[in-house]
Amino acid sequence: MSLALRALLDRGSFRLDVDLEIPRDGVTSLFGRSGCGKTTLLRIAAGLEKVRGAEVRFGDQVWQRGRRFVPLHKRRIGLVFQEHSLLPHLSVRGNLLYGYKRTPRAHRRLHLREITDMLGIGELLDRPIDRISGGQRQRVSLGRALLTSPQLLLLDEPMAALDTQTKREIMPFLSRMAGEAGVPIVLVTHAPDEVERLADRVVLMRDGRVERSEPLRQALARPDSPLFADEGAASVLEGRLGPANEHGLRPFGPEGARLWLPADDAWPAGQQTRVRILARDVSLALDDPRRISIQNHLKVQVERIDAPRAGRCLVATRLHDRQLLLAEVTPWAVEQLALRPGTQAYALIKSVALMG
């Protein structure tokens, strides 16, 4: 079962030529630079853009084919854009319930209490829209979309209009929503950190075409991944957080691949989460460096060594739990340590970012 999109569109210098299937589960990110066709493709899926000859199917539902065209309001889709479209004359509660009341009772799967708990907006219910922050407004927009009990949620750059601090505040709520809502999500973004934090799969777009469609782990395993264009290669590890110890550090991941992170009460113990580690923040050693201030050093096995780029080699290693950890070292270090596939080593991790 999938969302199938097929479209050919010419608009002057822009040409969209796509034939794509997206699984109906988890979060799929349409990723690429501005102008590559991400939003146009999303609008075709939603029925906001009627393109002659396009074909759109969602499971066994045909939304567009030939002369058949199902309008947006009959597709049962939730939409959230860069700018919120909340109704200013209604309170937060009124906005949240606007679509809920118009959803047939038989289709209502999600309800007010669970959505306000999920998005942390319960205390805002009686406030006017102009009395809440930009990040809170986006959370209300997400809640309103979810309360229509959609069969598909489409998010078009939902954090692009937010400043850095507000984006940092809303990301945990968006991450929680993606994990708990039980609705397949298609996320349009040009921000690698949003993909790494939220996506299960990535559709890489360029100049109106799909270059690749693959699981996030596969996208992060390639040294030439477009996700690395801004900050360089990075690893995204998944695991559960434990409670803080007497030193104020929280364990992440299973024994044998355990990291220690600074205490942060925003994430409860036992929650499945992700951390991001830049390859340039990982060094390699052949011996376990016990007498060192770096707290996180894990035993790894070298899987692959990529050819040098800009004087650095990307070394792909596997942790005890088989997750991929990338390290960036010099060709001289590769030679000195005699690194090759199969080499047992220790990864020294200087910085870890909790992603939620």
From TrEMBL:
One of its GO terms (molecular function) is ATP hydrolysis activity. Coiled coil: none annotated. SMART domains: AAA (SM00382). Residues 3-232 form the ABC transporter domain. One of its GO terms (cellular component) is membrane. It holds the Pfam family ABC_tran. It comes from the Bacteria. Gene3D superfamilies: 2.40.50.100, P-loop containing nucleotide triphosphate hydrolases (3.40.50.300). Residues 291-356 form the Mop domain. Keywords: ATP-binding, Cell inner membrane, Cell membrane, Membrane, Molybdenum, Nucleotide-binding, Translocase, Transport. This is Molybdate ABC transporter ATPase. The lineage of its organism: Bacteria, Pseudomonadati, Pseudomonadota, Gammaproteobacteria, Chromatiales.
